[in-house]
Amino acid sequence: MPNELDNSHDTPAPKSHGHAILIGVLAAGLVGALAWDGYLLNQANQLKASVAAVQDDTHAQIAKLSDATTALLDQRLQTIDGQIKAAEGNSDTALKRARMESLKQTKELNQRLADQQKEVSGELTELKDATTTANSKISDVTNDVTGVKSDVTTVKQDVATTQTALDKTTSDLKRAMGDMGVMSGLIATNSKDLAALRELGERNYFEFDLKKGAATQKVGDVTISLKKSDPKRERYTISVIADDKHVEKRDKTLDEPVQLYVSDSRQPYEIVVNQIKKDEIVGYLATPKVKMARR
Length: 295
Prior knowledge:
Helix content: 55-70%
Number of domains: 2
Shape: rod-shaped
Number of helices: 4
Number of strands: 8
Largest sheet: 4 strands, antiparallel
Strand content: 15-25%
Structural class: alpha+beta
C-alpha cells in the first residue's frame, strides 16, 4: 500500500513542468511585444520629426515664394503705374495743343468775319448815303422849282420803281466765300445780274470770253489765259498775270469767286466764270473802284 501512495504523488510532476514552459513562452512573447511596441514608438517619433521638418521647410519655401511674388507684383504695378502716368501726360499735352489750335483758328475766323462785316457795312453805308443825298437833291429841286413839280413827281416815281426793281434784283444776288478765304462781293451769274451790279456802282466790271490756245487776253489791268475747261464737271484752270506775277488757278468751279490781290488794292480782285464750254469760258472780272494799298 505505501508504494501505491508514493506513485500517486509522483504523477503530477510532468504537468508542473509544462506550466513552467508555458509561462516562459508567454513571458518571452510579452517581452518581444514590448520590444516591438518600443520599436514602433521610436519609428513613429522619428516619422513625426521628419513630417515636422518637412512642414517647416515647406512653410519656409512658401514664405520665400510669397515674398518673391509680392515683390514682383509691386515692381510690375509700379511699372504699369508709370506707363499710365506717362500716357495721361501725353494725352493731356495733345489735348491742350488741340484746344489751343482750335482757339487760334476760331479767333482768326472771327476776326476775318468781323473785317468782312465791317467792309460790307461800310459799303452799305456809302450806298445809303448816296441814296439819301439823291433823295435830298430831288426834294430840293422839288421845293425850288414849283413849275415842274409834276415832272419831279414822275421822276421820283420812276426812281422808286427803278430802285424797287434794283432792290429785287440785288436781293436775288448772292455772296460766297472766295478761294482765298475772303467773303466775296455780290456775284452775278448772268447778264441781268451783272447789269444790276453795274447799277449799284460799287465795283468796276470787265467781261471776257476766253478760248483755249488763243493769245492771252487783257481784262482790266490783269492778263488772263485759259489752260483747261471741263464742261461736264463744270471746272476750269486759268493763268493770271498781275503786277508782273504769274498765278495759276486750278480746278475752279462755275460761279466761284476766284480771288487775287494786286499791290495797289486792299480788297481782292474777283474773277467769276458763268459759262464753261469746251475749250472756252465766259465771265467777268470785278475790281474795287477805290483802291488803297495793303499794309
